[in-house]
Amino acid sequence: MAQKFFLFLIFWGSFSSCACDGEKIIKGVMWGMNKLAGEGYFPSNEILALGEFESVQVNMATFVENGESKAEVELSLINGRGEELRYNQENLARKCAILYAHGYSKIEDYNTVKIKFIQTDPFNPDNLAISEYSFEVEDLLQSQNPLNYGFQ
Predict the structure, then answer these.
(1) Statement to judge: residues 82 and 15 lie in one domain
(2) Cα 47–chain centre separation
């Protein structure tokens, strides 16, 4: 117990006594997460820009289906404002999935990429509208990167 307290004091003292740049700390944390989870684990800015999304959440899951082990990546893209989101959601979901598949270094460890578009009511956050699209990783890796063709 005394060792843990002593380590806590050293850790606390090293961070509280310096004027740290918050942005550098966040970049360091992101770098560490990318090294642990794989390069490209966090979706790129291009994905967020496609639908003008406010934020994104990434979930990784493994499960057994019909006796087979399956692994899935789920991207929840929250509060998009893009034109394509309103008129052609399936195409936008495919573009986001392709970009993610081409950017994530450990995508071969997964079977599917699920894209969720989540819209929240600004007056009542408990009200949600969710659209889901699921894509096979094999198909995504065979597809060309949509940004290479100038699609926006």
Answers:
(1) no
(2) 9
